[in-house]
Amino acid sequence: MVGFENLVEVPPMRKTTVGYDCPEGVDIRGRYDAEFASILTRDALQFVASLQRQFASHISYAMDCRKEAKLRYNRGALPAFDPATNPLRHADWLCAPPPPALADRRVEITGPVERKMVINALNSGAKVFMADFEDALAPNWENLMRGHINLRDAVRGTISYHDKARNRVYKLNEQTAKLFVRPRGWHLPEAHVLIDGRPTAGCLVDFGLYFFHNWSAFRRNQGQGFGPFFYLPKMEHSREARIWNNVFTAAEKMAGIENGSIRATVLIETLPAVFQMDEILYELREHSVGLNCGRWDYIFSYVKTFQAHPDRLLPDRVLVGMGQHFMRSYSDLLIRTCHRRGVHAMGGMAAQIPIRDDPSANEAALELVRKDKLREVLAGHDGTWAAHPGLIPAIAEVFDAHMGGGPNQIYSAKREDAAGVQAEDLLQTPRGVRSMEGLRLNTRVGIQYVAAWLTGSGSVPLYNLMEDAATAEISRVQNWQWLKYEVELDGDGLGVRVTAELFGRVVEEEMERIEREVGKERFSKGMYREACKIFARQCTAPTLDDFLTLDAYNHIVVHHPLASSRL
Ligand SMILES: CC(=O)SCCNC(=O)CCNC(=O)[C@H](O)C(C)(C)COP(=O)(O)OP(=O)(O)OC[C@H]1O[C@@H](n2cnc3c(N)ncnc32)[C@H](O)[C@@H]1OP(=O)(O)O
Ligand SMILES: O=CC(=O)O
Ligand SMILES: [Mg+2]
To answer: Is 182 one of the catalytic residues?
Structure first.
């Protein structure tokens, strides 16, 4: 079984759960709420339990394989193309053709499953909205349950929201974006849903509840006979894609819909996965609608994979962009791989967001986004991500102008030249300097992000950029790496080394700066001190924690005892 019990303390099993109508072996430890009960129905829970019972051992095995791979990398091995799957990479085969509803995905907006944002995103003019249970969401019980309610209402077209402060009512437009849902990664537990006494895989809760309640309405209202549609995060190997494929097949069987109804885009956002793109597409070939360059987690994964390789240290986070050779090679190979297999190659997220109070800074930010999107469309990407509705017109303009009039570039941008991308290209160490300001910024951003996450916000604007779990991970692991190897900060001309003592001073000073910036009141009411403890502990840990959010998750689990579950 999945070893999530190590991560969250699970009190002894109870025989029954007051409030929720649970099937045998299912126990809900989250707060009772009558609205939540309309999601946590007996049948829906039975479906989630059947997925968990069917797939927990497969997930557990896949997580063990991740650990083994980590050991190999830590002993000096490098990620590489698998010789055993060479024939598969060289053979000619195609994924199922994209469903008509998804031919054109040139701009996709993303955001957490928060009610107003769901409506705004669906109305934003983007072709797709990716509703996020992952990088952009702090998965506390309230966020999760409300997220499912919001998605159910969105799929049925009945979602509305009354902003009382502004006396504004939000409703869906006639024309809306197509909805994708991103469940959490395999590694995250859902500690409020116990099955047979153990926390459930978070992604199976996210997928199972959403699929159970929405497959039918989605196919009618959104998917033109196909769907539901998903984004799949943070995979490291095609064996993990096989599990998703089997989950999809099991769900289709339960619903009595044809194989290949469900479609999913896999984020290539770990370094090992870039060597597995054909294999991942092959596993999901009946269910695939392409791959996406999840650039922020990818950078995080580069550091994580090379945590024991002091010759592959990253420069300042702001210098690790898509212009670096390893990033460009990854995007080129992803496009070539997808188009060869007949599916979309999606671009990623530029971190800039609109800057309301400074027109010239706003224009500069927009220009950076335009440049990033121009690079993507000229490289052959079929669409890209937008973090904010205010960016959509500029992004759409770039893609409209360079897509040659078609809905995508699958058959017009084959990128055969990228067949020559080699392992060395994908692994090349990024160039640039390391600076004290880089260390300070990582610290300031990391602490503020964790503070936001602990209080329920999984994506936040910080210093005019979008920050989420993936971008914050880069700050954390970069600090860890610099501390571990006591790197010299060569960007300042001072030659200072990053020691525990220096870091301690930086943390103190950055906490003072955060307090000045957010104000005393917000600082004392927020969770900055707790966040600082979590972040600093992780940066200085002798062994790198696999994920920032795993430790932080323990701080947002609230187990409701039997007697108070109706409060
Ligand atoms: C690495 C990755 O995984 S990227 C994907 C995951 N990350 C994300 O999805 C981040 C998505 N973006 C966001 O969460 C937000 O844009 C933030 C946090 C970056 C900025 O949020 P804010 O500062 O609140 O934005 P701002 O105040 O400018 O919002 C203006 C309006 O746009 C709306 N808005 C902003 N971003 C979004 C969005 N992504 N989707 C829908 N609506 C949005 C707001 O709801 C607000 O609506 P209103 O005028 O009706 O009240
Ligand atoms: O999920 C996207 C990323 O960049 O990470
Ligand atoms: Mg990501």
So the answer is: yes
User: Are 341 and 95 a contacting pair, CB within 8 Å?
Assistant: yes
Q: Are 418 and 486 found together in one domain?
A: no
Cβ of residue 296 lying under 6 Å from some atom of ligand 2: yes
Please provide residue 241's backbone torsions phi and psi, each rounded to the nearest 5 degrees. Answer: -65, -35
Q: Is 163 a catalytic residue?
A: no
Of 132, 468, 474, 476, the one to substitute when testing ligand 2's pocket (max ligand atoms within 8 A of C-beta) is 468
Tens digit of pLDDT for each residue in 4-22? 544 565 555 444 445 899 9
Whether residue 474 sits in one domain with residue 417: no
Sign of CA dihedral 234, 238, 239, 241: positive
Same domain, 387 and 482: no
Model ipTM value = 0.99
Q: Report the SS3 class of residue 80.
A: coil
- Residues 155 and 150: their CA atoms lie apart, in Å, by 9
Do the beta carbons of residue 336 and residue 419 sit within 8 Å?
yes
* End position of a domain, from candidates 371, 395, 425: 425
Protein residue with least CA distance to atom 6, ligand 1: 136
Q: How many domains does the chain divide into?
A: 2
Neighbours of 481 (CB within 10 A): 23
Do residues 410 and 382 make contact, with C-beta atoms less than 8 angstroms apart? yes
Beta carbon of 348 within 6 Å of any ligand 2 atom: yes
Q: What sign results for the dihedral spanned by CA atoms 270, 276, 278, 282?
A: negative
Question: For residue 430, is it within any domain?
Answer: no
Please report whether residue 431 resides in a domain: no
Task: State which residues form the domain around 470.
Answer: 436-566
Backbone angles phi and psi of 189, in degrees to 5: -85, 160
Atom 8 (ligand 1) nearest CA: 111
> Is the pTM here over 0.90, yes or no?
yes
Residues 464 and 484 in one domain: yes
Point out the ligand nearest to the CA of residue 458: 1
pLDDT digit string (tens) for 204-227?
A: 999 999 999 999 999 999 999 999
Ligand at shortest distance from the CA of 351: 1
Stated as kind and residue range, the H or E segment containing 502 is helix 500-518
User: Residue 128 is part of a domain; what is its CATH number?
Assistant: 3.20.20.360
CA of 294 to the centre of ligand 2 (A): 4
Residues with CB under 6 A from ligand 1: 109-111, 116-117, 120-121, 132, 135-136, 296, 349, 353-354, 387-389, 459-461, 466, 468, 470
For 169-197, the pLDDT digits (tens) are 999 999 999 999 999 999 999 999 999 99
